[in-house]
Amino acid sequence: MKIISLTPSFNQEYLCIRDLNLYNSPSCQELATQAQQGRQLKFISLEITEKGLQIQLREDNYLAWLCGEDLDAIAVATTAYQKIPLTRSDIEKHIPEIITFTQEARNRTNHYLWGGTLAPNYDCSGLIQAAFATFGIWLPRDSYQQEAFCQKINREELLPGDLIFFGDKRVNHVALYLGNNQYIHSSGKETGNNGIAINLLTDDRDSVSRHYYQKLWSFGRVMHN
User: What are the tens digits of pLDDT across the range 32-53?
Assistant: First the structure.
């Protein structure tokens, strides 16, 4: 194993100075998530295992692997990341903008990308996280984590900006409720739209809406960040 030498950071935090791909293993082959320029991270270890170093993103505490070849994309963070607590009232003010973010993302040429959190290509939870994070509301990275993070609500309580979760043995997909029985989400090629699209919360329309309706898991509301 090779141990790298980094410019010391008094707060142990580093800044992404460009957009980064992050991986699910030290081989750095399969995308786990992406980090937008400006995000902060800390190193779990300075040992390069295979090709990568394990890091933790500060905003959502997500663990992933940074490819050693991308070390030139980080710099010392001058201040430690600090979360600014938000209430439900704070979040409600941004719901129209969050919905607009997803609709504008849909209007761009895009395709489904596993691990994608940066425009134009997202996975399901990446789109949701990006939409909220743009307005300072940090949700967990993965759909099952987002489901646990939200306050559970009944279908009858759904409001625009609430989240809809789908799954089999556990949650594995998430969408943003728009109102009027519609939701927007990024779904894969095999059973979805291969990108961002709007579907209906029903089983008697198109095949994609029907597929996900059969996998309805729960509904959630973001109450804090």
Answer: 999 999 999 999 988 878 789 9
